[in-house]
C-alpha cells in the first residue's frame, strides 16, 4: 500500500473519531472541521517519517488537540471567552440528566482551552493522566490540577445544588 | 451515584453523535498540502528551508567536475523533505518563483553528493552537498577539481572557489562537507546571496547551542558552527568550534582529575594548550572561579584570548576567541547558562497539591493592596506558539472585570525559552523593550488587559518572566518588574 493509500485508509477509519475530539476541544463544528483538516495536512507532510507499522492516531490526535488549543488562544485575544449565560432562575425540580447535558457542554466551552482539552482527553478519550500529559506536552501534575480545576468550574457553573438534584432524579 | 465525570461523558457523546468526517477529507487534505507546499517553495524572501538530505548513493550515474553532475539521478523531492531535519543543510534564501524542486543523490569521484535543484538552463538553481573523503590541507577545495579554473572566493569566511563565469560557487563549509550553489544566467546576481544563506543549523539549539550542560546563548554575529569534537583517549577534551567572517570561537570541556580543582585545571591547560594566565577574574556562571589569559593554539592570527573556569570537581571549561575579540569574549561569558540551571526553581513543577496556584522560584514584591489574588493560570494567550513553552502565572484584580473598567495585574514565568531571539519570537506582535535589570526584554499591548502593557524578559537561558497590567497599573507593573527576584 502506498503512503497516499495508507493515509486515505487512516482518514476513512479514524476521521470521524478525530473530528469528535476536535469538536469537543475547540467547541464548534465549523472550527473543528478546519482544525482537523489543518492537523491532517501537517500529519500528511510527515507521513513518510512515521515508523512503518506504528499507529499514527496518537500522533495525529496530538496535533489536533494542540492545534485546537492554539487557535482557541488566538481567538481569545480578539474576544475574551464569553462565559455562556446560565439560567437566571434556578432550574426546576424536574430537571433530568438529559437536560443537564447542554449546561455541561456550555460549561465545557467556557473553560480555558488547555483545561477543556484535559477534560476531553481524560473523560472522552479515556486517556490516563500520563497519556494526557504526553499528548499535551505537559506534566502529569498539570493534568491533575487542570482536570480538578475544570471539574470544579463545571460544578460551580451548573451549581452544586442543581447537580445534586439532577443526580437524585437520575437515580430515581 | 453517577458522578459528574459520567454525566460529562454522556454529554460529550450526545454532543458529537451526529458528527461524521467528510468522505473526501483525505483527498482534500492531500490536494491542499501539495498546493501549499508549492506556494512555500516559491515564497522567495520568506524563510525557505530546503533540505539536502543525504540520500541513497546511486553508483555509476554521476561524474564529477561537470556543471550538471546529478541530473540523471534527480527525482521530485519527497513531500516530507522539508523543515528542521537535524544536521541537514538549510537554505535561508531562494529566489522567488522557482517552483517544485528535484532531489538527486549519488557520487562524484570520491565524494558523496546530494542535490536539490529548480529549473534548468538560464533558470537553474542547484544546491549541492558533497561529503566524505576530502583531501586534507591547504588548497584542498581546488584539488577536488569540481570547478576547473575557479578563482578564490569566501563565503561567510569559508574558503571557496567561484567559476570564471560567476555561475558556480563552491566552498568548504566543514571538515567533511563542501557546499556548492550553481545557477543559470537569470540568477547570476543572486548566487552569493543564496550561498550565504546556506548552512548547517546547530542541532543543539540557537545561538551556540549547548555543550556538556552549558548553553551558549550569545555568539558574536558572523560565526558559524564548524564542528564538535568529542573527547577521545588521545585528546581527553570535548571541543566545539565556530568560525566565519566574525572571527573564531572555541569552547573546550575538561573532565576528570585534570579538572579536580581550579589549580589542577590551570596546570593541565598550561601544559596541553599553552595557557598563560594574565589575571583571575570574576566568577563565571555566577559561582565558578576563573582565570583570564591566552593560549598557544596556532593559526588564530596571534595568541587566542581565553578564559578558563572550574565548574565543579571533575569539570572545567576553556573558552577561546581570536585576538581582537575581547569584547565578544565578555559577551559570550555573560550569556552562558546552565541547561537546565539546577540552582533555581523557576521552572520546577509546583509541589504536589499546590497545583498551578503558586509561582515556585519567584519572589514577587508588594502588590497594590486594593487588588486581591485570583487563581493561577497556565495559559498566556499572547504567545504565538504556546505548545513550545510552559507557562505558570498568577493574577490579581479588583472586584470589577476588565470590561467594566476594573484593574488587573499578572506575573508569570515562561519556561522553554533559551535565547533573546527565542524571546522575541514568543509573542508575534511584541517589540524590543528597554532591558529589565540588564536582561533582554520585549513588550506588547494585551487587549485582554484593556490595552495594558506587558513586558517579558529573559531572566536566564531557559526561563522568561513577564509582568503585565491594565493601563491604570502601568507604573506599579514597572516597579514590580524592577523589584521581582528569583528565589535561590
TrEMBL record, chain A:
It holds the Pfam family Sigma70_r2. Keywords: DNA-binding, Sigma factor, Transcription, Transcription regulation. InterPro entries: RNA_pol_sigma-70-like (IPR039425), RNA_pol_sigma-70_dom (IPR014284), RNA_pol_sigma-E_actinobac (IPR014325), RNA_pol_sigma70_r2 (IPR007627), RNA_pol_sigma70_r4_t2 (IPR013249), RNA_pol_sigma_r2 (IPR013325), RNA_pol_sigma_r3/r4-like (IPR013324), WH-like_DNA-bd_sf (IPR036388). It comes from the Bacteria. Residues 15-76 form the RNA polymerase sigma-70 region domain. SUPFAM superfamilies: Sigma2 domain of RNA polymerase sigma factors (SSF88946), Sigma3 and sigma4 domains of RNA polymerase sigma factors (SSF88659). Residues 104-154 form the RNA polymerase sigma factor 70 region 4 type domain. Belongs to the sigma-70 factor family. ECF subfamily. This is SigE family RNA polymerase sigma factor. It comes from Planomonospora alba.
Automatic annotation (TrEMBL), chain B:
Keywords: Membrane, Transmembrane, Transmembrane helix. The chain crosses the membrane at residues 40-58. The keyword Transmembrane helix applies. This is Uncharacterized protein. It comes from Planomonospora alba.
Amino acid at each position: 500500500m502506498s503512503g497516499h493509500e495508507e493515509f486515505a485508509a487512516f482518514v476513512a477509519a479514524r476521521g470521524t473519531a478525530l473530528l469528535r475530539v476536535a469538536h469537543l476541544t475547540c467547541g464548534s463544528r465549523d472550527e473543528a472541521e478546519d482544525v482537523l483538516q489543518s492537523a491532517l495536512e501537517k500529519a500528511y507532510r510527515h507521513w513518510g517519517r512515521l515508523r512503518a507499522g506504528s499507529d499514527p492516531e496518537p500522533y495525529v490526535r496530538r496535533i489536533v488537540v494542540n492545534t485546537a488549543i492554539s487557535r482557541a488562544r488566538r481567538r481569545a485575544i480578539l474576544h475574551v471567552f464569553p462565559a455562556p449565560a446560565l439560567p437566571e432562575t434556578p432550574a426546576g425540580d424536574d430537571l433530568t440528566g438529559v437536560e443537564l447535558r447542554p449546561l455541561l457542554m456550555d460549561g465545557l466551552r467556557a473553560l480555558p482551552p488547555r483545561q477543556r482539552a484535559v477534560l476531553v482527553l481524560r473523560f472522552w478519550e479515556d486517556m490516563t493522566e500520563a497519556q494526557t500529559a504526553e499528548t499535551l506536552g505537559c506534566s502529569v501534575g498539570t493534568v491533575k490540577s487542570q482536570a480538578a480545576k475544570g471539574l470544579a468550574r463545571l460544578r460551580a457553573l451548573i451549581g452544586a445544588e442543581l447537580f445534586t438534584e439532577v443526580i437524585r432524579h437520575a437515580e430515581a | 451515584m453517577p458522578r459528574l465525570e459520567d454525566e460529562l461523558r454522556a454529554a460529550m457523546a450526545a454532543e458529537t453523535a451526529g458528527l461524521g468526517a467528510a468522505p473526501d477529507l483525505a483527498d482534500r487534505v492531500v490536494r491542499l498540502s501539495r498546493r501549499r507546499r508549492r506556494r512555500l517553495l516559491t515564497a522567495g524572501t520568506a524563510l525557505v528551508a530546503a533540505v539536502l538530505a543525504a540520500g541513497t548513493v546511486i553508483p555509476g550515474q554521476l561524474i564529477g567536475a561537470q556543471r550538471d553532475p546529478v541530473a540523471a539521478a534527480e527525482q521530485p523531492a519527497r513531500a516530507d523533505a522539508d523543515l528542521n531535519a537535524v544536521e541537514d543543510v538549510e537554505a535561508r534564501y531562494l529566489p522567488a518563483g522557482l517552483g517544485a524542486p528535484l532531489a538527486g543523490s549519488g557520487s562524484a569521484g570520491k565524494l558523496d553528493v546530494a542535490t536539490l535543484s529548480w529549473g534548468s538552463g538560464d533558470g537553474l538553481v542547484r544546491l549541492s552537498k558533497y561529503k566524505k573523503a576530502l583531501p586534507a590541507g591547504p588548497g584542498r577545495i581546488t584539488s577536488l577539481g569540481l570547478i576547473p579554473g575557479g578563482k578564490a572566493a569566501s563565503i561567510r569566511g569559508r574558503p571557496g572557489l567561484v567559476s570564471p563565469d560567476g555561475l558556480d560557487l563552491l566552498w568548504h563549509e566543514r571538515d567533511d562537507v563542501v557546499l556548492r550553489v550553481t545557477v543559470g544566467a537569470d540568477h547570476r546576481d543572486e548566487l552569493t546571496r543564496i550561498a550565504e544563506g546556506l548552512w548547517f543549523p546547530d542541532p543543539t539549539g540557537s545561538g551556540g547551542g549547548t555543550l556538556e550542560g552549558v548553553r551558549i546563548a550569545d555568539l558574536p554575529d558572523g560565526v558559524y558552527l564548524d564542528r564538535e569534537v568529542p573527547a577521545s583517549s588521545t585528546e581527553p577534551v570535548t571541543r566545539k568550534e565556530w568560525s566565519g567572517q566574525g572571527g573564531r570561537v572555541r569552547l573546550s570541556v575538561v573532565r576528570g582529575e585534570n579538572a579536580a580543582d581550579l589549580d589542577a585545571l590551570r596546570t593541565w591547560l598550561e601544559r596541553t594548550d599553552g595557557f598563560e594566565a594574565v589575571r583571575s577574574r570574576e566568577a563565571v556562571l555566577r559561582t565558578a572561579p576563573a582565570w583570564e589569559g591566552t593560549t598557544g593554539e596556532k593559526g588564530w592570527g596571534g595568541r587566542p584570548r581565553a578564559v578558563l573556569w572550574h565548574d565543579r570537581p571533575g569539570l572545567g571549561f576553556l573558552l577561546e576567541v581570536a585576538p581582537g575579540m575581547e569584547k565578544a569574549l565578555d559577551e559570550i561569558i555573560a550569556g552562558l547558562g546552565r541547561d537546565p540551571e539546577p540552582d533555581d526553581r523557576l521552572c520546577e513543577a509546583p509541589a504536589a497539591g499546590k497545583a498551578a496556584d503558586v509561582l515556585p522560584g519567584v519572589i514577587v514584591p508588594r502588590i497594590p493592596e486594593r487588588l486581591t489574588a485570583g487563581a493561577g493560570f497556565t495559559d498566556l494567550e499572547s504567545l504565538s506558539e504556546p505548545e513550545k513553552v510552559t507557562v505558570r502565572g498568577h493574577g490579581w484584580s479588583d472586584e470589577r472585570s476588565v470590561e467594566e473598567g476594573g484593574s488587573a495585574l499578572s506575573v508569570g514565568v515562561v519556561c522553554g525559552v533559551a535565547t533573546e531571539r527565542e524571546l522575541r519570537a514568543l509573542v508575534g506582535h511584541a517589540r524590543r523593550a528597554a532591558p529589565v535589570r540588564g536582561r533582554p526584554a520585549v513588550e506588547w499591548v494585551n487587549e485582554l488587559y484593556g490595552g495594558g502593557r506587558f513586558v517579558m524578559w529573559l531572566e536566564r537561558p531557559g526561563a522568561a518572566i513577564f509582568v503585565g497590567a491594565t493601563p491604570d497599573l502601568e507604573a506599579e507593573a514597572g516597579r514590580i518588574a524592577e523589584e521581582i527576584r528569583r528565589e535561590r
